[in-house]
């Protein structure tokens, strides 16, 4: 079994990788920080699984595609594709520019398309696509206007992915985190990772493409 994490780092994405590693999933990690990826890889290896990583700018479709394909080849198959990144830009609708919005959406939404299309040949029936969502999709904060757009679009895209792939036995789900990430309490990265893990293991007969996590 294996998980491919897009936007891997020390937060929720790292917790997701470790949670699936405890189930025996080898990991492929795509991110921008070599040191963070190496550290996470060591943590996963300590859990008894193989971990590989690629440094890539996922907004660069060619680089992202190449990185995902290399990792999929090393893993042999992709059982879970987890998408985590988003852009946090402090700009309200009166100052946010169209190029900035498009740049943020490319990172927080478009890169999922790139990763999915690159990983799809390595995904078989039973594979899952998961994504870290946010309450910003429903209650956007004006001061970070692009974040709400990203998360609303991400949820919509995940629903489309599920509709396109469920006939092949592949399902997709986004987990809407209805709280602020913290080091303690209900919204630690590890608690959110547990919610994502549970969403990936839903009964397919009652599958939901969007699962809220309220702690």
Automatic annotation (TrEMBL):
The protein's name: SDR family oxidoreductase
Residues making up the signal peptide according to the UniProt record: none
Pfam families: adh_short
GO molecular function, one term: oxidoreductase activity
Record-listed E.C. numbers: 1.-.-.-
Keyword Transmembrane helix attributed: no
The family this protein is said to belong to: Belongs to the short-chain dehydrogenases/reductases (SDR) family.
Keywords: Oxidoreductase
